[in-house]
Amino acid sequence: MKPIMSKSEAAELVRSARVRHGLSWAQIAEKLGTPLVWTTAALLGQHPMSPEQADTVCGMLELDDTVAEALRTQPSRGTDPQVMADPTIYRFSEALAVYGPALKELIHEEFGDGIMSAINFKVDVERRSDPEGDRVVVTFDGKFLDYRW
């Protein structure tokens, strides 16, 4: 029996097929009826897809059942150090290193003792025009989970 394709290998095939078919991540998300950032993360291996979602994507991208099978599997979430070294990804780490303690203080001041959930979570990215150069707006929308004793 052949092992199931890794999520990282499936992600590389999805990336290549998406480019070769001239499709945007937004077009794929629209076809699936799922949020853009979630869809992109799932196709890059960070979330399992339903059989219907995996089959739809593989049909759009002309990928075979081995890719769909990998897209359905449960991921090992997170990234490796090589991915974290990418300048775009590293800047998110840098921003949290600088502003994380302030955000924590402000969350505690506004909501009390607790955390923002990254499981019950929405994230969005958009472009905003600015005379000094376009701005990247990233919105994290997480449910507040209070500590209960």
From TrEMBL:
| Pfam family of the protein (one) | Cyanate_lyase
**Where in the numbering of this chain does the Cyanate lyase C-terminal domain appear?**
78-149
Give the E.C. number(s): 4.2.1.104
The record places the active site at R91, E94, S117
Against SMART domains, the record matches this protein to: Cyanate_lyase
> In which domain of life is the source organism classified?
Bacteria
Q: Which GO terms describe its molecular function?
A: cyanate hydratase activity; DNA binding
Q: Which reaction does it catalyse?
A: cyanate + hydrogencarbonate + 3 H(+) = NH4(+) + 2 CO2
Which keywords accompany this UniProt record? Lyase
Matching NCBIfam families = cynS (TIGR00673), PRK02866.1 (NF002773)
Q: Which PANTHER family match?
A: CYANATE HYDRATASE (PTHR34186:SF2)
Chain's role: Catalyzes the reaction of cyanate with bicarbonate to produce ammonia and carbon dioxide.
Q: Which family does it belong to?
A: Belongs to the cyanase family.
Q: What is this protein called?
A: Cyanate hydratase
Taxonomic path? Bacteria, Bacillati, Actinomycetota, Actinomycetes, Streptosporangiales
Q: Which gene encodes it?
A: cynS
